[in-house]
Amino acid sequence: MRTIIVTGSAGLIGSETVKRFGKDGACVVGIDNDMRAQFFGAEASTKKTRDDLIANVRAYEHHNVDIRDADKISELFKQHRGQIEAVVHTASQPSHDWAARDPQTDFTVNANGTLNLLEAARNFCPEAPFIFTSTNKVYGDTPNRLPLHELEKRWEIEPGHEYEPGISETMSIDYTKHSLFGASKTAADILVQEYGRYFGMPTVSFRGGCLTGPAHAGTELHGFLSYLMICTVSGRLYRVFGYKGKQVRDNIHSYDLVEAFAEFMDAPRVSEVYNIGGSRYSNCSVLEAIELCEEISGRKLSWNYEETNRIGDHIWWISDVRKFQQHYPAWKFRYDLREILMEIHRAVRESM
What we know:
The protein is an alpha/beta fold and 352 residues long. Helix content is 41%, strand content 18%. The protein is built from 12 helices and 14 strands. The chain has helices spanning 12-23, 35-40, 47-56, 70-79, 96-101, 103-124, 180-199, 224-234, 254-266, 286-297, 322-327, 337-351, and strands spanning 3-7, 27-31, 60-63, 84-89, 130-135, 148-150, 155-157, 203-208, 210-212, 238-241, 248-253, 272-276, 283-285, 303-306. The strands form 4 sheets. A 7-stranded parallel β-sheet has the order 3-2-1-4-5-8-12, sandwiched between helices. A 3-stranded mixed β-sheet has the order 9-11-13. Strands 6-7 form a two-stranded antiparallel ribbon. Helix 4 runs parallel beside helix 6 (103-124) and helix 8 packs across helix 10. The radius of gyration is 19 Å and the shape is globular. The chain starts with a strand and ends with a helix.
């Protein structure tokens, strides 16, 4: 039976992947030990999602394994040798704020964990597409050097700039402050590319903007739109950090991202890199997102402003997805920003 291995299988992107390919009849082998609860507390636990997947996805096989355990990862891949059709690696420590508190854990999860998975794939399924959810933080704070101008509710790039449609993969990842999280993810990103080039494996790094959706267990340190809606609906105080709240993010629904994974699986390439996000189709500033959350929920958000921005935070990020669309022209966006937030609002209401 065709088998898809998914790490971080109970997280936002991992669970979407499990459901997508489980519905297609694949056996999905999930790896998730709920480190999100360790990173961000009990409210960020993925246990409920894990239990739902076990109960509702017919051919789902869950493993409470730490990706830093090379022996267990290798043994799991060995058990499924000859059946593995793809590996989707979404597990990570995802917060640059958290990484500074414990750099060793951050690096071993993000970099060493990725290396363990690549080695297992090389040994037991070298022809299977290896899909890695990287991050736009590999570019560090280089985007903050772009010529930006201030509008009423957002920062925007100067008209006519080469990155006006969005930031492409041509941006350098050198000579920049990445944050420790960005450094560990960059190490993983380069490893994924190198296993592709050196060993001829079909690997891809999807460098994501804000990945979001109704299954996101948002917290202050990770999960921008989800946490913002949670605060709006619950009355919890929300804090805006720096840049006058006009910093811009593009946002892509987990469904649209996983459909991009599926396109790559159907026609894999060797050692590819794609910036992926909401692009010009789905983006907002923090101030614009607050207004939209208030409009959708019918509630006013309680928030305050802190002048100091987060280290490594981008003032303006919009992904240029044209390279991916050129390689995979059948892929289209399904969800715009309003639809994303409406789904998140429903999910937050149902969880309360």
